[in-house]
Amino acid sequence: MPEIKLVNVSNHICREINLTIRDSEYFVIVGETGAGKTTLLNVVAGVTDHSGTVIFDNHEVNHLPPFKRGVGYLFQELALFPNYSVEANIAFGLRAQGYAKNMIKERVSSLMKMMRIDHIAGHYPNILSGGEKKRVALARSLAPSPKILLLDEPTSNLDAQTAKYLRGELHSLLKKMGITTLHVTHDLREAEEIADRIALISNGTIEQVASPDELFFNPVNSVVADFLGMPNILECRQTRSLTSGLVEILLEELKIIMPYDGKAIHKIAIPPDAVHVYTEPPVQPLLNSFIGIVEDIKQNNSMVKLRISVGKSSLISELPLSLFERKPVGKGAKIFGTIKIERLRYIASC
Amino acid sequence: MQYITTGLRGIIWRVAPVILFFALWEFAARFGRFSAVEIFPPFSTVLLEIIRLFNGGIMTRNITDTLIRVLSGLCIGVSGGIFVGIIMGWRRLIGRSLSPVISILYPIPALGWIPLMMLWIGINEMLPIAVITISSFFPVCYNTATGIRNVDPAMIRAAHILGASEMRILFRVTLPNAAPQIFSGLRLSSGMAWRTVLAAEMVAIPTGIGALIMKAESLVRVDIILSCLLVLSLFCLIFEKILNIWEKKWLGKWSRYA
Question: What is the pLDDT of residues A81-103, one digit of tens each?
């Protein structure tokens, strides 16, 4: 599968983009709405004007029309053809490119089986659920066997459970097929979960390209750090192996129990939204809980950030304003908290 | 069982007002303040007159003439309207250039074209056909162009990336998705054609349902005038129903309009 290179790509949104996406890599572009993520996908697909060069495997493809670039594109709005059944939607590209009838039938049926949508082959898009529509659109973009797959917010508008499921499925499927994938999302959690590497884009400029761990522990500038929500990065003093693959970590004044893969732990990053706080003590003992004092409160339109001291350590907790307003606390108040381990990251010592 | 009851209730709600309307007409004409058979005949008298006119062949002859004119004018006007509408919707530059011309001509009432056409074409069978052609052209042209322009651009982009040619995109993606609006235009054009033919026949042509109304007016035969209007409205309704059936059949299961 091809390596993609963007050299000095600029247009009305993107500015001087230089980016290399490796062969068979699962590359995620993350950024806020309007940052230029979709425009970048459109540049690779060849459906928008730009200056600079797009190179697939050392061949310039600027002059190639979209369908000759070997690119599959899953649009955010899906763009399923409402006048075609699921089966005909998937077969559309193959028919347009003149594939033989029996080959089309075979390919469509194997894709429907793979995406587990063969039971809705004759249904029309207007009666499908959000998840089913995504699967159909994905099967349609995979039908002409693309070498590169562009995914624009593939899990948007899905409930959290379905999104998580689809994400996992998508990742393992595309890795198995070895397709070079460019996935665009505004959701950092999604990016962390599936990316080989992440590019953070802001105002049409790439701010940092790094692996998820690298991005978390070494944000190169304040734009990246702001987007990451400035995680709490704490030095690990001591670890103690527990049974069943867990480790107890002593972080200054905090004790955290988390899954363990045997590496020595040097630093730990705790996203502010993984620090949950309560004004009342929990009814029953909770894992990774702490008691702290509110040192500072900062709020904007929708979020509140609390700086909490736990002994000599300091933690930042971020919570929605609506939740804070239900039980507000002032500076100096005693507060009870827990740390959710799902999004913890650690850096192994050398 | 509940579906049957709901269906029955739907039919009753649709039919009852019509029956009530004709009953009120009958009652008002027979017992009301203006009851006079000559100037306000009851519904039953009009119904008998319709049967008499059909039996005598007068209505059949006149409605056939009118129908031929409507169908001819409508076919030419609608074909031209759809063709120009497709070009205007598909090629943005042509659309932008032609839009002002269409905007100027569209609001001109059909009656306004009759004197001009009388001078250009003369008073013959071509006159009503030409006027119907003009009046049915604009609604369908406008709606086709708008329908095509309103098709989700992402869908066209998707088809393009999947390797579809321009023609394939137009006929397999754009036109089917613009169809609901094209059908709206067809319904407007059909109504316009029936209104226009009546005006043309009343003003200039000696045959057809419009001409029959004018003859009845000179003989003060209100029952014939009302018979003609009822038959005319029935034909308008039949055209509307045919278009609805055609739309449902063409758009099939996929459209939210079907």
Answer: 999 999 999 999 999 999 999 99
* Record: contact B161-A71, CB cut-off 8 A: yes
- What are the counts of helices (DSSP H) followed by strands (DSSP E) for chain A? 9, 21
Q: Contact B255/A77, CB-based, under 8 Å?
A: no
Residue pairs spanning A and B at CB distance below 8 A: 66
A45 chain-B contacts, CB cut-off 8 A: 161
| The CATH classification of domain A4-228, taken from the options 3.40.50.300, 3.40.50.2300, 3.40.50.11540, 3.10.290.10 | 3.40.50.300
* Share above pLDDT 90 across residues of chain A, in percent, rounded to a whole number: 40
What residues of A are in contact with residue B173 (Cβ under 8 Å)? 81, 83
- Residue B231: give its domain's CATH number: 1.10.3720.10
Distance of CA B212 to the CA centre of its chain: 20
Q: Would the ipTM clear 0.90, i.e. be above it?
A: no
The answer to whether B176 faces chain A, any CB pair under 8 Å, is yes
* B161 contacts chain A (CB < 8 A): yes
**Would the CB atoms of B154 and A77 count as touching at under 8 Å?**
yes
pLDDT of residue A349: 56
Minimal Cα–Cα distance from B164 to chain A, Å?
5
Of A93, A124, A125, nearest to B162 by CB-CB distance is A93
What torsion, rounded to 10 degrees, do the Cα atoms B103, B105, B108, B114 define? -170
Q: What distance in Å separates the CA atoms of residue A195 and residue A174, rounded to the nearest whole number? A: 12
Residue B178, pLDDT > 90, answer: yes
The total number of structural domains that make up chain B: 1
Q: What is the CATH number of domain A233-348?
A: 2.40.50.100
Query: Which chain A residues have a beta carbon less than 8 Å from that of B254?
Result: 82-84, 124-126
For A8-39, the pLDDT digits (tens) are 999 999 999 999 999 989 999 999 888 999 99
Cβ separation B254–A67 shorter than 8 A: no
The CA distance from A91 to the nearest CA of chain B, in Å, is 10
Would an 8 Å CB–CB cutoff place B4 in contact with chain A? Answer: no
Of residues A219 and A211, more confidently modeled: A211
* Full domain range(s) for residue B191: 47-251
Residue closest to B163 by CA, chosen among A323, A76, A144, A274: A144
Is the CA virtual torsion B98, B103, B105, B111 positive or negative? Answer: positive
Instruction: Say if residue A244 is exposed, middle or buried (CB neighbours under 10 Å; 0-12, 13-18, 19+).
Output: exposed
Instruction: Enter the tokens of residue A149.
Output: 């797959």
